[in-house]
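Database export, one record per block. Field names are fixed; values are copied verbatim from the stored entry.
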Amino acid sequence: RDTASTAPTSATSFGAIWNMSFGFLGIQFGWGLQLANMSGIYSQLGANPDEIPILWLAGPMTGLLVQPIIGSMSDRTWNRLGRRRPYFLIGAILSSIALFWMPNSATLWMAAGLLWILDASINVSMEPFRAFVADKLPEDQRTTGFVMQSFFIGIGQTVANALPYLFSRYGVTGTTTSGVSLTVKYSFQLGAVAFLLCVLYTVLTTKEYPPEDPEAFQRLKAEKRGIGHFFAEIAEAIREMPTTMKQLAMVQIFTWLGLFCMWMFFGLMTSYHVFKAPNAQSELFRQGGEWTGICFAVYSIVCFAVAFVLPKVAQATSRKFVHAAALVCGGVGLLSTGLIQSPNLLLLTMVGVGIAWASILSMPYAILSGSLPPARMGVYMGVFNFFIVIPEVVASLTFQPLVKHVFQNNPLYVVMLGGASMLVAALLVTRVRDVGDEKPAHAAAVAIAA
């Protein structure tokens, strides 16, 4: 029996699903701005291409440490704000502060330090959002709930990615004293405000289910108090990991290795391979960075454009089919960058990535949630994040010699490696057992207009 909350039994309205997911719009301002711009910021502060992977270590390491702990803590939290919402709010406040100060970094290591703070704070907000959907929605609506998150992620990333280009179009020029473009600075500061306001909207408009048995909940909380119990519960969750989660783990590892290759090096590839920038201080490098934002905006637009189509396709076929096909689209899109020299044609590669991104943000979580015990949803969602961050940690720690000596500091080859990794992930999806699809009463998705 789940002592943590009263599970929902009736259908949730469109408006309620909208409200509970709206905070993801703000979270994606944080992720979108850093994914499109951090490699450029590092380069403008003096980093070489082979140094970029280690400077990106903050994201995967903070995810590895923060998400399972926050997931476990939120499983046993209940106060005036609820169960997950206190973490949304604390993370949003800290993230907004880090976003505001990031582009004012005077040195490379100051920027790297602020990225650690930013990523840790974003993870505090983001991890409980995944469990939040599973808490509040009956199983036959969870695919729709996760797809709604994908929709807001797509919108948030689109706006965040396009902001530097839009500021440039409206006449913003110049750099900070340390060399960071003012278009990037103003984008980060606007994103800081958006992050906080969007999360506040979800906190203020959404309620949570109280503990089903308050006394049992308090006993559980008292028995497992302290950091040692958090780590013990995480270790226990790993030992008792459901088979579906183990199978999805390999899919996630190759998927997110591919995404990490893209995020780290797509911007540098665009500046050096497509715009032919001679160095990181040139005007062509700046133009390439802004065009990267437009490219990422395209995949975000595609993401929210197809997000609500995916449940219907999954209902007609299966969630596994949708996810495998989407990953193939993403892999082909990244591999095709090797054939493209035109900035406009480069936008086409992002169509495939956008289809993959919409599925990556929803289908694995929808498949996973049906195999997890409700009382441990938070900790398992945190543990699931291991399979996102482990390949990123490995890439951050090992890619420097690969990029320098094998790829000769050519970012194009790293982007193409990402495409190949996504194709491997697509093959591995075929091995996954989707428990939800095996239940006679299960509907893979509910039409969002219902």
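Remark 1: Confidence is low (pLDDT under 50) at residues 440-450.
Remark 2: The first helix runs from residue 14 to 21.
End of record.
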